[in-house]
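We modelled the chain as a single entity of 107 amino acids. Its sequence is:
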Amino acid sequence: MAKDEKEALKKFPNLPKFVFVSEPRDFYSPINGKLIKKSEIDLVARVITGGKLCKIFPVTSGIATEVATCIPGTILAEVIGNSMKKEEFFEKEKRIRIGHPSGGYGS
């Protein structure tokens, strides 16, 4: 893929991606100043990609985050206290509400 770190950074500037999560809490969006209330979200998350904090929460990160919440033993499952099995996740169309720098999304 790449012979060294310099080439890797040039070929894949948006890798690696890291997602940091915490329990829900009130926060103000640093992007639009809107208050995101703890009651409106299930967790707070931030994505670091290419060594920079994303102003948004990429959809691909959101999908991976949501799926990880229904896998027992993952950090995300522990953060939201979710013991839901993946079958229930898809049957009930449960969606996780993620608080991120530009606000929040989810159902």
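As a brief sanity check on the tokenised model: The mean pLDDT is 83. The chain has four helices and seven strands.
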